[in-house]
Amino acid sequence: MDLKMDCPALENYVPKNKQIKFCLFSEARWLRLLSGQGKPYEHIIEGFIQIAEYWYSDICEARERELTIKWIAERLNETPQNINKWLPLIYKDLFELNYSKPQLFASEGENLCTFLFSGFEYGRTCSFSFGLPAVPHPGDTLIFEFVKAALDCDYFYIKEITFARDCGNPSITIHTKPKELFERINRYREFLLEKARFMNQIDYETESKSHYYLDEMLRYYENKGYVPSVETIKQEREELYKFWREHNKK
Protein backbone atom coordinates (compact mmCIF):
# COMPACT_ATOMS: atom_id res chain seq x y z
CA MET A 1 0.00 0.00 0.00
CA ASP A 2 1.58 3.26 -1.14
CA LEU A 3 0.58 5.80 1.51
CA LYS A 4 1.90 9.34 1.43
CA MET A 5 2.42 9.40 5.16
CA ASP A 6 4.82 8.10 7.75
CA CYS A 7 2.64 5.37 9.24
CA PRO A 8 4.07 1.90 8.64
CA ALA A 9 1.60 0.65 11.25
CA LEU A 10 -1.26 1.09 8.77
CA GLU A 11 0.54 -0.52 5.82
CA ASN A 12 0.19 -4.08 7.10
CA TYR A 13 -2.48 -3.68 9.75
CA VAL A 14 -6.16 -2.83 9.29
CA PRO A 15 -7.63 -1.48 12.53
CA LYS A 16 -11.24 -2.15 13.46
CA ASN A 17 -13.73 0.60 12.68
CA LYS A 18 -14.73 0.66 16.34
CA GLN A 19 -11.16 1.73 17.19
CA ILE A 20 -11.03 4.26 14.36
CA LYS A 21 -14.39 5.73 15.40
CA PHE A 22 -13.15 6.66 18.88
CA CYS A 23 -9.82 7.92 17.51
CA LEU A 24 -11.71 10.30 15.23
CA PHE A 25 -13.99 11.32 18.10
CA SER A 26 -10.93 12.33 20.12
CA GLU A 27 -9.78 14.86 17.49
CA ALA A 28 -13.01 15.49 15.59
CA ARG A 29 -12.16 19.13 14.83
CA TRP A 30 -9.38 17.93 12.52
CA LEU A 31 -12.00 16.49 10.17
CA ARG A 32 -12.77 20.03 8.99
CA LEU A 33 -9.27 20.11 7.49
CA LEU A 34 -10.50 17.54 4.95
CA SER A 35 -13.38 19.72 3.71
CA GLY A 36 -13.24 21.14 0.20
CA GLN A 37 -11.07 18.36 -1.19
CA GLY A 38 -13.75 16.49 -3.09
CA LYS A 39 -13.81 13.55 -0.70
CA PRO A 40 -16.85 11.24 -0.88
CA TYR A 41 -17.51 11.67 2.84
CA GLU A 42 -17.44 15.50 2.97
CA HIS A 43 -21.19 15.78 3.52
CA ILE A 44 -21.02 13.88 6.83
CA ILE A 45 -18.09 15.78 8.38
CA GLU A 46 -20.08 18.37 10.34
CA GLY A 47 -22.61 15.78 11.46
CA PHE A 48 -19.84 13.45 12.61
CA ILE A 49 -18.25 16.28 14.61
CA GLN A 50 -21.59 16.94 16.32
CA ILE A 51 -21.87 13.25 17.22
CA ALA A 52 -18.35 13.35 18.68
CA GLU A 53 -19.24 16.41 20.76
CA TYR A 54 -22.39 14.64 21.94
CA TRP A 55 -20.41 11.54 22.93
CA TYR A 56 -18.11 13.64 25.12
CA SER A 57 -21.00 15.61 26.62
CA ASP A 58 -22.74 14.94 29.93
CA ILE A 59 -26.12 14.47 28.24
CA CYS A 60 -25.04 11.34 26.38
CA GLU A 61 -26.86 8.48 28.06
CA ALA A 62 -24.85 5.46 29.18
CA ARG A 63 -26.82 3.08 26.94
CA GLU A 64 -25.71 5.08 23.91
CA ARG A 65 -22.07 5.35 24.91
CA GLU A 66 -21.05 2.72 22.37
CA LEU A 67 -22.63 4.72 19.54
CA THR A 68 -22.75 1.86 17.05
CA ILE A 69 -22.09 2.33 13.34
CA LYS A 70 -25.80 1.76 12.74
CA TRP A 71 -26.68 4.50 15.27
CA ILE A 72 -24.20 6.91 13.64
CA ALA A 73 -25.44 6.09 10.12
CA GLU A 74 -29.06 6.79 11.07
CA ARG A 75 -28.19 10.25 12.39
CA LEU A 76 -26.09 11.05 9.33
CA ASN A 77 -28.78 9.79 6.91
CA GLU A 78 -26.31 7.31 5.47
CA THR A 79 -26.00 3.56 5.24
CA PRO A 80 -23.85 1.59 7.70
CA GLN A 81 -21.97 0.23 4.69
CA ASN A 82 -20.86 3.73 3.67
CA ILE A 83 -19.89 4.68 7.22
CA ASN A 84 -17.84 1.49 7.53
CA LYS A 85 -16.17 2.28 4.21
CA TRP A 86 -15.44 5.94 4.99
CA LEU A 87 -14.10 5.70 8.56
CA PRO A 88 -10.75 4.08 7.61
CA LEU A 89 -10.51 6.40 4.61
CA ILE A 90 -10.95 9.49 6.82
CA TYR A 91 -8.36 8.13 9.25
CA LYS A 92 -5.76 7.53 6.53
CA ASP A 93 -6.53 10.87 4.86
CA LEU A 94 -5.77 12.67 8.12
CA PHE A 95 -2.42 10.90 8.36
CA GLU A 96 -1.65 11.83 4.77
CA LEU A 97 -2.63 15.48 5.29
CA ASN A 98 -0.60 15.62 8.48
CA TYR A 99 2.44 14.33 6.60
CA SER A 100 2.12 16.86 3.76
CA LYS A 101 0.84 19.89 5.71
CA PRO A 102 1.67 19.45 9.42
CA GLN A 103 1.28 23.18 10.11
CA LEU A 104 -2.50 22.79 9.74
CA PHE A 105 -2.53 20.80 12.97
CA ALA A 106 -1.16 23.61 15.14
CA SER A 107 -2.96 26.74 16.28
CA GLU A 108 -1.40 30.20 16.44
CA GLY A 109 1.06 30.44 19.31
CA GLU A 110 1.49 26.67 19.67
CA ASN A 111 4.74 24.78 19.21
CA LEU A 112 4.53 22.40 16.26
CA CYS A 113 6.02 19.08 17.37
CA THR A 114 6.58 15.93 15.34
CA PHE A 115 6.11 12.84 17.47
CA LEU A 116 7.66 9.50 16.58
CA PHE A 117 5.47 6.76 18.02
CA SER A 118 5.78 3.01 18.35
CA GLY A 119 3.44 0.39 19.78
CA PHE A 120 4.25 -2.61 21.93
CA GLU A 121 4.21 -4.87 18.87
CA TYR A 122 7.46 -4.84 16.90
CA GLY A 123 7.15 -2.82 13.66
CA ARG A 124 4.03 -0.89 14.66
CA THR A 125 5.27 2.70 14.23
CA CYS A 126 4.00 6.03 12.97
CA SER A 127 4.68 9.73 13.21
CA PHE A 128 2.24 12.57 13.72
CA SER A 129 2.70 16.32 14.09
CA PHE A 130 0.52 18.65 16.13
CA GLY A 131 0.76 21.81 18.18
CA LEU A 132 1.23 22.06 21.93
CA PRO A 133 1.22 25.15 24.18
CA ALA A 134 4.55 23.99 25.63
CA VAL A 135 7.20 21.47 24.61
CA PRO A 136 7.16 18.40 26.90
CA HIS A 137 10.24 17.18 28.75
CA PRO A 138 11.93 13.77 28.75
CA GLY A 139 10.16 11.60 31.30
CA ASP A 140 6.75 13.21 30.75
CA THR A 141 3.71 11.14 29.81
CA LEU A 142 1.71 11.87 26.66
CA ILE A 143 -1.85 10.58 26.17
CA PHE A 144 -2.79 10.69 22.49
CA GLU A 145 -5.86 8.61 21.70
CA PHE A 146 -5.84 9.44 17.99
CA VAL A 147 -3.07 6.93 17.18
CA LYS A 148 -4.55 4.05 19.19
CA ALA A 149 -6.18 2.44 16.15
CA ALA A 150 -2.81 2.33 14.38
CA LEU A 151 -0.64 1.29 17.34
CA ASP A 152 -3.08 -0.28 19.83
CA CYS A 153 -1.59 2.11 22.38
CA ASP A 154 -2.34 5.69 23.44
CA TYR A 155 -0.05 6.20 26.47
CA PHE A 156 3.52 7.23 25.71
CA TYR A 157 6.68 8.09 27.58
CA ILE A 158 8.67 11.06 26.27
CA LYS A 159 12.13 9.63 25.70
CA GLU A 160 14.15 12.19 23.76
CA ILE A 161 13.65 15.60 22.14
CA THR A 162 15.58 16.89 19.13
CA PHE A 163 15.61 20.58 18.22
CA ALA A 164 16.81 21.51 14.73
CA ARG A 165 16.94 24.50 12.41
CA ASP A 166 17.16 24.27 8.62
CA CYS A 167 17.10 27.27 6.30
CA GLY A 168 15.65 29.40 9.07
CA ASN A 169 12.87 26.90 9.84
CA PRO A 170 12.95 25.43 13.35
CA SER A 171 11.70 21.91 14.03
CA ILE A 172 10.98 19.88 17.15
CA THR A 173 11.06 16.08 16.96
CA ILE A 174 9.97 14.09 19.99
CA HIS A 175 10.85 10.41 20.37
CA THR A 176 8.46 8.35 22.47
CA LYS A 177 8.03 4.79 23.67
CA PRO A 178 4.78 2.99 24.54
CA LYS A 179 3.71 2.97 28.15
CA GLU A 180 1.19 0.90 30.10
CA LEU A 181 -1.69 2.85 31.64
CA PHE A 182 -0.36 2.92 35.22
CA GLU A 183 3.25 2.09 34.45
CA ARG A 184 5.91 4.11 36.23
CA ILE A 185 9.09 4.50 34.23
CA ASN A 186 12.08 2.95 36.01
CA ARG A 187 15.05 5.17 35.19
CA TYR A 188 17.55 2.52 36.29
CA ARG A 189 15.99 0.11 33.80
CA GLU A 190 16.37 2.75 31.09
CA PHE A 191 20.03 3.17 32.08
CA LEU A 192 20.63 -0.59 31.83
CA LEU A 193 18.93 -0.70 28.44
CA GLU A 194 21.10 2.14 27.13
CA LYS A 195 24.21 0.47 28.54
CA ALA A 196 23.34 -2.85 26.91
CA ARG A 197 22.81 -1.08 23.58
CA PHE A 198 26.12 0.77 23.85
CA MET A 199 28.00 -2.46 24.65
CA ASN A 200 26.33 -4.22 21.69
CA GLN A 201 24.69 -6.71 24.04
CA ILE A 202 21.20 -6.10 22.74
CA ASP A 203 19.58 -5.46 19.36
CA TYR A 204 16.16 -4.36 18.13
CA GLU A 205 14.96 -7.95 17.79
CA THR A 206 15.79 -8.57 21.44
CA GLU A 207 14.07 -5.34 22.45
CA SER A 208 10.90 -6.51 20.73
CA LYS A 209 10.51 -9.29 23.30
CA SER A 210 7.82 -8.99 25.93
CA HIS A 211 8.47 -6.69 28.88
CA TYR A 212 8.94 -9.70 31.16
CA TYR A 213 11.72 -11.31 29.11
CA LEU A 214 13.41 -8.00 28.38
CA ASP A 215 13.47 -7.17 32.10
CA GLU A 216 14.90 -10.61 32.88
CA MET A 217 17.59 -10.11 30.23
CA LEU A 218 18.57 -6.74 31.69
CA ARG A 219 18.79 -8.18 35.23
CA TYR A 220 20.94 -10.99 33.89
CA TYR A 221 23.16 -8.45 32.10
CA GLU A 222 23.56 -6.36 35.25
CA ASN A 223 24.51 -9.37 37.39
CA LYS A 224 26.56 -11.44 34.94
CA GLY A 225 27.69 -8.99 32.28
CA TYR A 226 25.94 -10.44 29.23
CA VAL A 227 22.45 -10.82 27.80
CA PRO A 228 21.15 -14.42 27.71
CA SER A 229 18.74 -15.94 25.21
CA VAL A 230 15.05 -16.33 25.96
CA GLU A 231 15.62 -20.10 26.03
CA THR A 232 18.18 -19.68 28.82
CA ILE A 233 15.75 -17.60 30.87
CA LYS A 234 12.95 -20.14 30.35
CA GLN A 235 15.23 -23.01 31.36
CA GLU A 236 16.37 -21.26 34.54
CA ARG A 237 12.78 -20.40 35.44
CA GLU A 238 11.70 -24.01 34.92
CA GLU A 239 14.52 -25.23 37.16
CA LEU A 240 13.54 -22.68 39.81
CA TYR A 241 9.87 -23.70 39.66
CA LYS A 242 10.89 -27.36 39.90
CA PHE A 243 12.93 -26.58 43.02
CA TRP A 244 9.97 -24.75 44.60
CA ARG A 245 7.56 -27.61 43.83
CA GLU A 246 9.90 -30.19 45.34
CA HIS A 247 10.57 -27.97 48.37
CA ASN A 248 6.84 -27.46 49.01
CA LYS A 249 6.20 -31.20 48.93
CA LYS A 250 8.42 -31.71 51.96
Portion of residues in beta strands equals: 15-25%
Overall geometry: globular
| Content-based structural category | alpha+beta
Q: Specify the oligomeric state.
A: single chain
Structure report:
The chain has 250 residues and is of the alpha+beta class. It has three domains: 8-100; 105-178, Glutamine synthetase, N-terminal domain (Ubiquitin-like (UB roll)), CATH 3.10.20.70; 187-249, no CATH class. 42% of the residues lie in helices and 16% in strands. The chain is built from nine helices and five strands; from the N terminus they run ααααβββαββαααα. A hairpin with a 6-residue loop joins strand 1 (111-118) and strand 2 (125-132). Helix 1 (17-26) crosses helix 2 and helix 6 (187-198) crosses helix 8 (211-224). The longest helix has 21 residues, at 80-100. It is globular, with a radius of gyration of 22 Å. The protein starts with 16 loop residues before the first helix and ends with a helix.
